[in-house]
Design goal:
This protein is an all-alpha fold and 130 residues long.
Amino acid sequence: MSFYVYFLCGLAGGVLGGMGMGGGTLLIPLLTAAAGVGQAAAQGVNLLSFLPMSAIALSVHAKNGLLRRADLLFLCVPALLVSVLFSFAATRLPALLLRRGFGLFLIVLAAVRLFDVLRARSPQRDDVKL
């Protein structure tokens, strides 16, 4: 039974990861809630599974001309340095704090996306004066 749960979690994470949207956003909650994996272990599994997914997705996006290569250095260097720092911190933080922090991140992300959708759907009215 656990094989199927892990397989479905991997499929769901792969769909988002392949689109470049961060498969861990879905994979980590699925692993912790559906498969009973601890938060720190789920984050580690996510990082490990991220490597092949990101390499393939990156090559596909590069072939389709969807990368701004001039900006990659300014994005990757700080991201790499901060990710190393916080990966060491995550190994020392309590699981409850990691769960709550990730949950808060997901709530903020959902609120921002909802705001964007609602703003895009509202009619633009240039004739209204205040």
